[in-house]
Sequence to fold (197 residues):
Amino acid sequence: MIEVHEKTMKEIIFVTTNKGKVASAQKELTNIKVLPIEAELSEPRSDDIKEIAKQKVLQAYSIVNRPCIALDSGFFIESLNGFPRAYVNHMLDTIGIEGILKLMHGVENRVCEFRSCLAYYDGEELRFFESKSPGVVAEKIRGSENENSWSDLWYIFIPRHFCKTMAEFDEGDFLEYNRVKETSGMRKFGEWYSNLR
Fold:
């Protein structure tokens, strides 16, 4: 019976080099088989994560020639005019999370949010699934290495409704976080894709 289910299970190609994003997709897309393909996608210089996700999925499709998804995220800190926005990787490669904490030293307003946009393309239809996760920037780096982690920002991001960084989360915290947060773009995609013809 399980084998029949395996064969009829929908599949989607996810083009990314980020293993944390793949693990997260496999967890969230419970009724869809995620087929990760490791390929470096060039990111357009843009502040707009939707535009970046669009360019990434078009590149991904040109590589695999099958329906696929690509994901882009940004981190927006209110008191820093939204910095680093879509330039998270560049920020991590240059000043790192230590640099963010230095910039935030003595700043009272620590409001921030993750924004993500998943783009789907099948050669004809292009669709976007967006989500936001508000929170605050911690005063210092907290937590330990985590298999779910897909960014160093987890060590300084405290989601709304919590008192700890995501790097300090245990399984129970993740379950609670998934219950209270806005439905992720990944999950919105999963619901839509599962009902597709």
